[in-house]
Amino acid sequence: MKMKPVKTNIILIVTVLGLFMPISVQAQFLKKLKKNVENKIAKKASEKTDELLNGNGEKTSVPDAKPGPASDNTISQSETADKRDPVAVNDQNVLRFKAPSKDFRDVVIQSYKGLPRYGDVYFLRGTTEPTMNKAYEALLELKFLEDLFKDMDQSKLTTYNYTNNDLKSKNSNNAQHHLLMLAKDVLSDEKLQEYFCDSEAKAPCNFNNSVGERTIVPSWGGTRNNEFAQNRSYTKFIKSHYGTLQAWSNSFYEDGTQIAYFVARGAVAEKYDFKNKGYWIRSIFSIGGDFILHNSNFLAYSENEKTLKNYSKKVFFPVEPTAAKAYNLIERSPVFVVFKVKVTPNLTSQTHIAWEFELEDTKMEFYKDGLLSQKMGESDIRTIKFKD
């Protein structure tokens, strides 16, 4: 005859004994048994929770993040600005190029992932930090327009008569005007008063508009001063600060090139394409700003790059229907496309630089907003779709 398992026998014995117990004893016994069962359940549940929170035990799938505002401006090690540059990055998506001395102001431009942001830039008064794009570009021109500044007369101001063909005088006059505009933007408030305000003025000159931006400075030494006072102001600046400015400009584009991000602005061309699951974007490169870079100077090599440069073509941006519903894009909604590029100066004349750029990466990032805080997705230019 088979023997029943020991565990079963114990349960039967406990059950039989329980039948002969007094009612009060039975109640206490059942209450204790219930408590033990509840403790075991609670313990098991606690262990299961610990497994899930600590990543142990059974793996579960994580749902896709909901579309919407998300920051994608984390600076990776491979994408940080050149450590040799006198530049600081802060959390407001700007690069701050440190002034060489207290006589100058830091130059600030917008950034993306720790590198300069060119093309379409975003400024909202009271929200984004004010930038100095003109000063930044003028410093680059001071570095690369060498032939122009070689002709600059450093001993006196040049008056150029446009009726003659004296190229050296023309270059000197242009270079001095360029230096005047650069000094206006980068000099400290104290030095601005020294070089551009009449020394006999009863009150300090005002070089800022109603929102605190620097206004145009018409002349060295002040507008009311004669040509002798203007020349004294100019030559003093040349002697005291021109060399410092040249050295500062040489700290930019150290190897003659710059890795940056080019932001192009397009627009939704039509309603959501349910067949292909995405939106068609038109007018990339043809609308929006062109700080430093313009689409006409895009060096397109592959067939897809050449097609992209043709702004009459529409570009396909893939996005799932659920995400598209959350983004709520409609026809003509702006879309911002980000490219990582390599920028090289091309001197087309003694006074002009064409900033040429080529793709450093084939990735295209799509954003809903100009601040680049609401990333919607990515595409690869090697496989992207186009249509007329």
3D architecture notes:
By secondary structure, this protein is an alpha+beta fold. The chain has helices at residues 6-19, 23-53, 133-144, 146-150, 167-186, 189-196, 227-249, 303-309, 321-327; strands spanning 87-89, 94-97, 107-112, 115-119, 258-268, 278-287, 314-318, 334-347, 353-359, 363-367, 375-380, 386-387. Strands 1, 2, 3, 4, 5, 6, 7, 8, 9, 10, 11 and 12 form a twelve-stranded mixed β-sheet that branches. α3 (133-144) packs antiparallel against α5 and α3 packs across α7 (227-249). The termini are far apart.
Topology:
Blueprint lengths: L5 H14 L3 H31 L33 E3 L4 E4 L9 E6 L2 E5 L13 H12 L1 H5 L16 H20 L2 H8 L30 H23 L8 E11 L9 E10 L15 H7 L4 E5 L2 H7 L6 E14 L5 E7 L3 E5 L7 E6 L5 E2 L1
Parallel strand pairs: 4-5
Antiparallel strand pairs: 1-2, 2-3, 3-4, 5-6, 5-8, 6-7, 7-12, 8-9, 8-10, 10-11
Helix pairs in contact: 3-5, 3-7
Distance between the termini: 88 Å
Q: How much of the residues is beta strand, in percent?
A: 15-25%
Order of helical and strand elements = HHEEEEHHHHHEEHEHEEEEE
What's the main sheet like? 12 strands, mixed
Q: Using only CA atoms, what is the Rg?
A: 35 Å
Query: What's the average pLDDT?
Result: 79
Structural class: alpha+beta
Count of helix runs: 9
How would you sum up the global shape? Answer: elongated
Q: Which percent range fits the helix content?
A: 25-40%
Q: Which spans have pLDDT < 50 for at least 5 consecutive residues? A: 1-35, 37-85
What's the number of extended β-strand segments?
A: 12
